[in-house]
Specification:
Elements (H helix, E strand, L loop, with lengths): L2 H12 L5 E2 L4 H4 L2 E2 L3 E2 L2 E2 L4 H5 L2
Parallel strand pairs: 1-4
Antiparallel strand pairs: 2-3
Amino acid sequence: MDLAEACLVRLSEIHADCVLVTAGSDFRDVYRRYGRRATPTMMPSGVWRRSRR
């Protein structure tokens, strides 16, 4: 996790009703809010399939 990603995760903790718009599937698969909850994300279609190949 780099600084920019850490900032986005922290901001999602501070603003609980936010949804991250990203093309990075790590926010759904790896990064967690409060250490255990998935970060709400909105991604373009097909991002998940491309990242899993």
